[in-house]
Amino acid sequence: MGKYEVFRNAPITEAVLEVVVLPSEEAKVGSLIRLHEPIRERFPKIEEGKEFRGGFKVGVGTASFVEEKAIGYLFRSHQENKVIQARLNGFAFSKLKPYENWESFRSEAKVHWNSYIEMTRPLKILRISMRYINRIEIPLPMRDFAEYILTRLHIAPGLPQAISQFFIRFEIPHSEIPAMAVIIQTIENVTDKNRLPLIFDIDVLRENEYPVDSPEVWIDFEKLHDFKNEIFFSSITEKTKELFR
Amino acid sequence: MNYALVPSIEHDLAACPAISEEAKLLKLRAEQLLADYYKPLSTRWANPTIRFSDLKEEWERETAMLSSINEIAMHPAYQQIIGIGPVAVSLILYEMSKKPNHWFWALKSITGEDPVPSRAKGNIGEMTEAWLNWGREQRYLR
Fold first, then answer.
1. Same domain, B80 and B109
2. Chain B residues touching residue A12 (CB < 8 angstroms)
3. Cα–Cα 20 to 30 A to A137, which of A72, A150, B32, B113?
């Protein structure tokens, strides 16, 4: 058994591995479609990827963007539980629920990444990141979030402890890798099974320049994955683990 | 307990591009948070992008029926855009690239430059092109 337990009902709803690159000057958005040819059987659905830019305009209660621009393509698998995002400035591979394990996720991402660099020939890598979005359905009634989650919001003891909504974000640097973790938590509405879904989003990233074919990238992805696991497993309790077994 | 305030590393904080329903919810909540954050006028105006956007809308709305260049450029909102200073240059150039308008006075006032050749004076299309070329050379525009 590894350092961390592998759960039968892992709460991961999405895992994403992303590499941001400096594109070559010859690279064109339209040419990214060629990536689809070798994978069209397994990823039959194509969508155009859009970027919103030009700043934002804040109206009454809304934030809206002023311009959209095609930046690449999304290739979706048959069951839509795997998605490749190919952009001029990067590549991402998403695996939606059910998540099997890191080894198979990393291996598949690596295969698609290799096709991406072979076709687009980016000049260098600028950033690597991975994001795991977890949905933890907490059974109600619950006395305190600390029963289930230890990296959390804390309300002063003298105040009413009931919370109708929250959205919190932490940035935690890791000086040794070095890397940054961006952790976001929020809650959804109570389900009809009287459970409170807590969304626990962990995004770990490293900004560093690598040659595109550098094996060091995958060594650093392992470090990021360990960092992500450290955050997740240090943040949950035995009671939470029981929900996933 | 000791809390250390560690400076952020220089990244744009753009999250890894997730696509699940949970990721959409997180994005929506972040947008709501941003909208709430920018509701107070003091916060809105501390952000030059939003301040520019507010002033530009006011200027466009209130000068739409004017034909005198002097009146258009002397409008208080236009003068306040000039007051934003160098930060406004890329915002004005970006705006010009989408929709040419009488931004020349503001650009000239802020930068002290005038890249428009004399033969192009009075021709909004050519004047705009000259400023956009200047903006690209000076790396205000990508």
1. yes
2. none
3. B32
DSSP letter string over B72-98?
Answer: HHHSHHHHHHHHHTTHHHHHHHHHHHH
pLDDT digits (tens, 9 = 90+) for B83-110: 999 989 999 999 999 899 999 999 999 9
| DSSP structure string for B15-48 | PP---SHHHHHHHHHHHHHHHHHT-SHHHHHHSH
**Domain range holding B78?**
48-137
Same structural domain, B92 and B128: yes
Q: Which residues of A touch B (CB under 8 A)?
A: 13-14, 16-18, 54-59, 61-63, 67, 74, 83, 85, 92, 94, 96-97, 127, 129-131, 133, 135, 167, 171, 173, 178, 180, 182, 184, 186, 188, 199, 201, 203, 205, 207
Quick one: B20 and B80 in the same domain? no
The structural domain count of chain B equals: 2
Kindly state whether B118 is in contact with chain A, defined as any CB-CB distance less than 8 angstroms: no
Same domain, B61 and B34: no
Q: Is B120 in the same domain as B57?
A: yes
- Whether B30 and B57 map to the same domain: the answer is no
Q: Are strands A124-139 and A90-96 parallel, antiparallel or unpaired?
A: unpaired
- Does ipTM surpass 0.85 in this model? no
